[in-house]
């Protein structure tokens, strides 16, 4: 089950990173960040209501809007963010077509290590594709996603590297029948720009 795999991966990211004293909050500069991610995704017959294997190449543009305030202590110290994303995907199997969407996500980034910071996020939004995927029937789609990631922060914070694993759901929300969903896993790598 994809959700169980996400929880397991986040658990190991969380446990393997040692705790160190968090940076002085007064010195941490909080600003909106702009990121770009590239990667690939695939669905598998039998994941949820998925009856068709779909493969994609993905490009995601994100604005990260972090809050000033932190919560928690020790390993649990975190900062909440809003991720505003524009995902672009090229569906290359079973049909060839583009997908464009807009998603709003809520994220929690754990700040207990200055160089490697895991995060998790959840969100969703609308999308559009002309792909003819058997079992799906509308060009307008609704999506939701759940993801885990890690930010690698070198000395120059503008050079951060991100790695993410996402569970991504896409269906037409009952607009037309049939309404088979496409549940996929996506692996993405990103950086700031």
Structural account:
With 193 residues, this protein is mainly beta. The protein has a single domain, classed as Porin. Helices cover 8% and strands 55% of the residues. Strands 1, 2, 3, 4, 5, 6, 7, 8 and 9 form a nine-stranded antiparallel sheet that branches. It is elongated. It starts with a helix and ends with a strand. The mean pLDDT is 84.
Radius of gyration: 18 Å
Beta-strand proportion: over 45%
Strand elements, count: 9
Number of domains: 1
Q: Quick one: CATH class?
A: Mainly Beta
How helix-rich are the residues, as a percent range? under 10%
Q: What characterizes the major β-sheet?
A: 9 strands, antiparallel
Helix and strand element order = HEEEEEEEEE
CATH topology: Porin
Instruction: Quote the average pLDDT.
Output: 84
Distance between the termini: 34 Å
Low-confidence stretches: none
Shape: elongated
User: What structural class do helix, strand and pairing data support?
Assistant: mainly beta
Proper CATH architecture:
Beta Barrel
């Amino acid at each position: 089950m994809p959700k169980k795999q996400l929880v397991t991966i986040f658990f190991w990211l969380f446990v393997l990173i040692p705790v160190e004293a968090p940076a002085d909050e007064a010195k941490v500069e909080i600003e909106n960040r702009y990121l770009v991610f590239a990667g690939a995704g695939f669905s598998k017959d039998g994941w949820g209501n998925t009856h068709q294997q779909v493969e994609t190449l993905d490009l995601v543009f994100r604005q990260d809007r972090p809050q000033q305030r932190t919560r928690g202590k020790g390993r649990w110290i975190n900062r909440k963010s809003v991720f505003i994303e524009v995902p672009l995907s090229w569906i290359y199997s079973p049909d060839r077509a583009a997908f464009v969407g807009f998603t709003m996500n809520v994220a929690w980034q754990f700040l207990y290590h200055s160089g490697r910071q895991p995060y998790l996020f959840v969100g969703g939004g609308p999308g559009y594709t002309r792909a003819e995927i058997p079992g799906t029937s509308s060009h307008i789609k609704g999506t939701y996603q759940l993801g885990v990631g890690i930010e690698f922060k070198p000395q120059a914070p503008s050079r951060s590297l991100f790695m993410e694993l996402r569970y991504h759901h896409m269906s037409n929300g009952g607009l037309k029948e049939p309404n088979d969903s496409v549940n996929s896993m996506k692996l993405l790598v990103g950086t700031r720009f």
